[in-house]
């Protein structure tokens, strides 16, 4: 790109109407200081003296104008300004990654990498393949901690990723979801690193409570492997929610519980059988048999393009209970049952409203 031609103030008639006023109130002093100065970037030749009645702008004004012009490039006839900004942003991102100039919290969460890379990898599945429709996103508070409790299904945990994308892309406050994952996730070499970078952490009460107290939105799927590995004949029938540990965590942190129902994940891998012997050899909780896997090899691992709906229900407040309520087993049982029933009722409601599995 050619160097821009520098024309001193006073020589170009286009700038005479917008000359900056002297700051010290005296045109003579400003004019004297401006004599003989060079603007940055000139290689030879002194700058022509500026008449005293037309003082040159100080260095701060020139720098501010130059910075503003560089940060807001004008798009040309072909819209090149947008590409310039993208390329510049991508190069700046790479520079920060290479120099280590980015932040990671104590759980390993890398917000910048999640926003710019990981979400971009998930978004095509979310928008184009599963065509996720989100309802009730306003039920997630705009600030402060909240615990999202959702059903779990689909043979592979793609519903967790779609839930994270739904909160990230549709919440008006741009909130981030921190999922509680099983220990198996953090035993896999590559998946472990990606899960940490995306903000997920081990499903334990201590980590969940710490995140809630810091004002994060935490997601949990209490069904665990019982939900994700159930046969296709039991689709959309919630499994047992464990001992209600998530309720105790929400009570201790005083965070509301937001029930969440996900429809569409049950049909991506219709599980018609479970090879338990193979699962024990591989150290897996189950080994799914579907109409396409393992019969078609890697092609059988491609999920079916079902139409998804994610609905967030009305939050259940927990901040009105006393401190000792977290140790009350009857209260935990009642709240757990309330959350489970609300999710199950919404699942049935969404299934009645659904016109087709794929459309």
TrEMBL record:
Q: Where are the transmembrane segments?
A: none
CDD domains from the UniProt entry: LPLAT_MGAT-like (cd07987)
DNA repair as a keyword of this entry, yes or no, is: no
InterPro entries reported in the protein's UniProt record = Plipid/glycerol_acylTrfase
Q: Where is this region: Disordered?
A: 1-56
Record domain Phospholipid/glycerol acyltransferase: where: 146-265
The protein's UniProt keywords, in alphabetical order, are:
Acyltransferase, Transferase
Record's signal peptide: none
Q: Which GO terms describe its molecular function?
A: acyltransferase activity
Acyltransferase is among the record's keywords: yes
Q: Under what name is this protein listed?
A: Glycerol acyltransferase
